[in-house]
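re: the backbone from monday

yeah here it is again, tokenized this time
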């Protein structure tokens, strides 16, 4: 298995398990978004969600618009700064549209809660949130995603788009970075 900066990685969720769950989420989303008068807008948060978004949209059996928001993240550190800065805004006008916000992982919830409010200010008709992973018992704010892939332990995770200082995004599964 890979090492990143001398740390061992241990497999938490394998590729096939992710694939099955992503398909289930997509089918649920497809049903829930059938009433959208225009094509739904899927908004991915860069960079971490790009792999999840790529797989999820291809399992949604209806036309969707895909856009990305880029917010400032951890950088090289493993701790949430709690501060959110919009690096790249949406190209799509989402006013009156049905929007699905997609992120890789919910830790304290600070990031998603901020971004949720930011998107609400753009006046979408519907705004739902889909998160692949949620760290158990870590939430600092009251925020519950509408769609959740997996609950995960409180470890630093990499793979399937998640990185540690920009490494590990291209792993096919989700891995925990082991201590020491
Ligand atoms: P909060 O605490 O605001 O954090 O919910 C959410 C954002 O923090 C990043 N994050 C991680 N990134 N492995 C990562 O690669 C992790 O274990 C991890 N935990 C949080 C991620 O960018 C997420 O959007």
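seq for it, each position gets an aa:
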């Amino acid at each position: 298995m890979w090492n990143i900066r001398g740390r061992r990685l241990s497999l938490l969720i394998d590729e096939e398990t992710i694939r099955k769950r992503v398909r289930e989420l997509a089918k649920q989303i497809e049903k829930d978004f059938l009433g959208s008068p225009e094509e739904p807008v899927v908004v991915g948060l860069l960079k971490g969600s790009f792999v999840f978004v790529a797989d999820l949209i291809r399992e949604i059996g209806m036309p969707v618009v895909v856009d990305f928001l880029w917010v400032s993240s951890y950088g090289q550190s493993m701790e949430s700064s709690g501060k959110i800065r919009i690096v790249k805004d949406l190209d799509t006008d989402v006013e009156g549209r049905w929007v699905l916000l997609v992120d890789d992982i919910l830790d304290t919830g600070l990031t998603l809660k901020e971004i949720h409010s930011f998107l609400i200010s753009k006046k979408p008709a519907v705004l739902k949130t889909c998160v692949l992973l949620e760290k158990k018992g870590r939430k600092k704010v009251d925020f519950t995603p509408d769609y959740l892939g997996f609950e995960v332990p409180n470890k630093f995770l990499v793979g399937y788009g998640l990185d540690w200082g920009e490494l590990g995004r291209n792993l096919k599964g989700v891995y925990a970075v082991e201590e020491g």
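The chain has one domain: 16-152. Residues 15-32 form the longest helix (18 residues).
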